[in-house]
Amino acid sequence: xxxxxxxxxxxxxxxxxxxxxxxxxxxxxxxxxxxxxxxxxxxxxxxxxxxxxxxxxxxxxxxxxxxxxxxxxxxxxxxxxxxxxxxxxxxxxxxxxxxxxxxxxxxxxxxxxxxxxxxxxxxxxxxxxxxxxxxxxxxxxxxxxxxxxxxxxxxxxxxxxxxxxxxxxxxxxxxxxxxxxxxxxxxxxxxxxxxxxxxxxxxxxxxxxxxxxxxxxxxxxxxxxxxxxxxxxxxxxxxxxxxxxxxxxxxxxxxxxxxxxxxxxxxxxxxxxxxxxxxxxxxxxxxxxxxxxxxxxxxxxxxxxxxxxxxxxxxxxxxxxxxxxxxxxxxxxxxxxxxxxxxxxxxxxxxxxxxxxxxxxxxxxxxxxxxxxxxxxxxxxxxxxxxxxxxxxxxxxxxxxxxxxxxxxxxxxxxxxxxxxxxxxxxx
Length: 428
Fold this sequence. Notes:
UDP-galactose 4-epimerase, domain 1, 2 domains, 16 helices, four-stranded parallel sheet, alpha/beta, TIM Barrel, globular, three-stranded parallel sheet
C-alpha cells in the first residue's frame, strides 16, 4: 500500500572511490584508470561529508524496486546507454602534455570552488541565524483573546520588542502563535509584520505535540498538524522544524514555580510504541525531505529523547537524512536528579545535530546528601560550557540555526545576551 505521501529512498549501492576505480579497471582496463587524477575538492568534500553513509530502503524494496548488482554493472549500463555500447580505447593513450593540462584544469576548478567555499560554510559569526524564542510570550492576551486572532498591529507591538532586543531572526514558537493554522491571507499579514521589523524566520518550533501522545486522538491530531507545519515552513522559507515527544504539562507541573521540578509524562518502555514513534517520525521526515525541510528532534526528560544514548539510538532507528537531534541538553541538566555530564552527552550527540535550542542552568550537587539544586542562568554562566559544546558541534559540521531561550525574569533580554555570547565564540 502506498502511503499518502509517496516519498522514499530508492535502493542503491554503497561503494568507496577505490572500489569504483577497480570496477572501471575491470570493465575498461588499466589505461582508462590512468586517466584519473587525484584532486580533492574541498567544496565537494564539505557537502558530501555531511551525507549519510547508509539508508533504510525496505519500503522501496517491498514495492519491487531493486538496486544494480555491482558498480561494474553501472559502468556497463553507462557504456550501453550513453556511448552506444562502444568507448574509444584510444582515449587512454593521452600523452603527458594532455595529462598536465587535465591536472591544471582540475586545480583551477578547485581554486574556483575554494573561493566560493570561503564565503559559504555556512555563515559568519555575525550572519549565523540566531532566533529569538517566544516562550516568554503567552498565547492568551490579558483580555482573554488569543494571539492567533490578534490584529497585525498587536503582532507588531510584540515583534517591536524582538527588534529592539537586536534580533534579526524569529522562531514563531507555536506555544505563542500557530503560524501553520493561520489562513493564507493572515499568514502573509504576519510575514509582512515580520519584514517591517527586519525579522526573518529560519525555523519553526512545535511545543508539546507528541505524535505518540497517550491520547490517540491527540497523537493523530499532532501528526496531521506537524505535516501542516512542514508545508508552511517550505512555503515561508524556513528550513528546519523542531519537534519532540513532550506531552502536555501535568497539573503538578502547572502549579510548580519551575515545571521541571514536578513529575510529568513518561514515554512507555514499550517496543511497539517506540516502533510507532520511529515510523511516524520517518513519515514526517519523508515529507520534510520532499519539500526541502529538515526535522530536529528535541531532547526532553523521560521521553524517547530523554538521554544522549536514547536520542542517538532513536535517530539512528529513524535513519533518515532529513532528521537529526535538537541537543537541548539544558532540558536535562536542570533536573533535580543525577544526570550524565554534559560533555559526555555532547560527545555522543555532536554528529547528529540539527536546529539547536540552547539555554543554560546553574547546577549544584551535594555528594553528602544527594541533593541537586538548579536555576536558569545566562549561557556563559551555567554548568554547560557552550564554548566547548558549540566547538564540538562545529567539528562535526554543524550548519543549522540556533534558538536562544531563557526561563524566568526578562527572558528576552537574557536571550539577547545569549545571542551575543554565541556570536563571540563562533568562528569569525
